[in-house]
Design a protein that fits this description.
By secondary structure, the protein is an alpha/beta fold. Helices cover about 40% and strands about 15% of the residues. α1 links the parallel β1 and β2 (about 30-35). It has helices spanning about 15-25, 60-65, 80-85, 90-110, 145-160, 190-200, 215-230, 250-260, 275-280, 285-295, 300-315; strands spanning about 5-10, 30-35, 50, 70-75, 115, 120, 165, 170, 175, 200-205, 210-215, 240, 245-250, 265-270. The strands form 4 sheets. A 6-stranded parallel beta sheet has the order 3-2-1-4-5-7, sandwiched between helices. The protein binds nicotinamide-adenine-dinucleotide. The site of nicotinamide-adenine-dinucleotide has 28 residues, from β9. Nicotinamide-adenine-dinucleotide (NAD) binds near residues 10, 15, 16 and 78.
Length: about 325
């Protein structure tokens, strides 16, 4: 088997900027090439080796993979739910053509594996809200969700038709102290920490009581690595795995933050993202991922809030006196 050489597309984003480091810690710095549409001069030293790449430019992608002898691609470039509703045609093009380019190039280059994340956005208002089951990816109501549902079927198709070892998880909303969120409906769950520390209050764009599935970034990175490390014969789902971390509401999160920041005030001004949130599950059943490749989340709400605040303060965000 060829030595693993990874291309990570979308390396400057919320997940990419952390996954790049995790993959390099495992495979070595030079074995993981970071790529994104950003100019090289705007990319931090940490992310090097880096190449500017538009995933929609298929010939450039193919040339790069051949030249660098890439054996695995992690595709993280996408337009997320809230931004997608503002620019539906562009979201569809990036999310669909980007994936199809990667799948095609992976087949042409006889790659060993591909990782592409789906999302809880594949579930629409008709899916069961509580512990939404694995096999219920039905009627998504956002462009983003439609593109993820279609993408899941393309992954299954490339596995069935070409034997491409493509693997996927449906990430919930992701929370990190290292990287800012990229225009999704769950972004409030990161922004709230920054505002709580800098101003002692936060104006939330979702209503109290809006429960959504969420996950701490360290769990999400570990899930990705564990899925990609699992023996192929254990991967029984070739669309995308349900993945659960924790579930909470804005008021529940606010209450937990208030235990650490005295006088923290949370107000609400719901916008168009409320409708997106209302169409998604409250919580996710990830039994299949547990059975197939041993998935288990480590962080719940309390540990996550404590760890977020501790790390943000360490990085220079100071609690209001
Ligand atoms: P992000 O928006 O933070 O990052 C996406 C990156 O892709 C950006 O750095 C952007 O510059 C890059 N990009 C955009 N267009 C490109 C192009 N044409 N060519 C190359 N690069 C391009 O997104 P993220 O939050 O890191 O999400 C990564 C993946 O995970 C996406 O597929 C997303 O749908 C999925 N996901 C994320 C979350 C979450 O909460 N962050 C939840 C569910 C699923």
């Amino acid at each position: 088997m060829k030595k693993t050489k990874i291309l990570l597309v979308g390396a400057c984003g919320q997940i990419g900027s952390e996954l790049t480091g995790a993959l390099r810690a495992k495979y070595g710095r030079d074995q993981v090439l970071a790529a994104d549409i950003r100019e090289r001069s705007r990319v931090t030293e940490e992310i090097q080796p880096y190449v500017k790449l538009d995933v929609l430019n298929k010939s450039a992608l193919l040339m790069l993979c051949r030249e660098k002898k890439i054996t695995e691609i992690y595709l993280l470039a996408a337009m997320l739910s809230a931004n997608g509703e503002k620019e539906p045609a562009i979201a569809w093009q990036l999310n669909m053509d980007g994936l199809l380019n990667v799948l095609d190039v992976a087949v042409k280059c006889e790659m060993q594996k591909v990782f592409w994340p789906s999302s809880i956005a594949v579930f629409g208002p008709n899916a069961p809200k509580q512990l939404t089951p694995q096999a219920n990816a039905s009627a998504p109501s956002t462009v983003y969700g439609i593109s993820k549902a279609a993408g899941e079927y393309w992954c299954q198709y490339y596995f069935d038709k070409f034997g491409l070892d493509v693997r996927s998880v449906r990430y919930p909303g992701l929370i990190s102290y290292k990287s800012p969120p990229g225009g999704g409906t769950t972004d409030y769950a990161v922004d709230i920490f920054h505002k709580a520390l800098s101003e002692g209050n936060y104006l939330c764009f979702l209503k109290p009581g809006t429960a959504l599935p969420m996950m701490y970034m360290s769990d999400a990175i570990r899930a990705t690595m564990e899925l990609m490390d699992a023996p192929a014969e254990q991967i029984n789902v070739r669309t995308s795995y349900n993945l659960s971390g924790m579930s909470f509401t804005p008021d529940g999160l606010g209450e937990e933050i208030g235990k650490h920041i005295e006088g923290f005030r949370l107000d609400y001004l719901p916008d168009f993202r409320q409708q997106i949130a209302d169409s998604w599950p409250d919580s996710i059943d990830d039994q299949q991922a547990r059975e197939d490749w041993g998935w288990e989340a480590k962080f719940g709400l309390e540990d996550m809030v404590e760890d977020m605040l501790e790390n943000l303060v360490r990085r220079g965000y100071f609690a209001k006196a």
